[in-house]
Amino acid sequence: MTTTVAHLKRGQKGIIKEFADGILPIKLLEMGCLPGNEIELVQVAPLKDPIYINVNGTHIAIRRAMASLIELDIIEDSPL
Amino acid sequence: MSKQIKVALIGNPNTGKTSVFNQLTGLKQKVGNYPGITVEKKEGICKLPRGVKAHILDLPGTYSLNTTSLDESVVVELLLNKNDKDYPDVAVVISDVENLKRNLLLFTQIKDLRIPVILVINMADRMSRTGISLDISLLEEKLDTKIALVSTRKGTGIERIKELITDYKNLSISPNIDSTVIAPEYFDKLKATFPNEDLYKLWLVITQDVNFMPIKRNPISIPSSFDTKSKSELKRLQQKETILRYQFINGILKQAYKVDLNVAKGLRATLDKVLTHKIFGYAIFFIILLTIFQAIYDWSSYPMDFIDELFASASEWVKDSLPPGVFTNLIAEGILAGIGGIVIFIPQIAFLFLFIALLEESGYMSRVVFLMDKLMRPFGLSGKSVVPLISGTACAIPAIMATRTIENWKERLITILVTPFTTCSARLPVYLIIIALVIPEGRVFGLSYQALTLMLLYLLGFGAAILSAMILNKIMNIKSKTFFVMEMPNYKLPLIKNVVYTVWEKTKSFVLGAGKIILAISIILWFLGSNGFSDDFTNAETIVKNRIENQGYTDFHKSNIENSLQSYSIALKDSIDKKVYTIGQASIIDSLRTKETSLQKKAENEEIASYKLENSYMGYMGKAIEPIVRPLGYDWKIGIAVLTSFAAREVFVGTLATIYSVGSDEEETIKNRMAAEVDPKTRKPLFNMASGISLLLFYAFAMQCMSTLAIVKRETNTWKWPAAQLVFMSLFAYIVALIAYQILK
Question: In this complex, which of B246, B485, B488 lies closest to A27 when CB atoms are compared?
Answer without folding.
Answer: B485
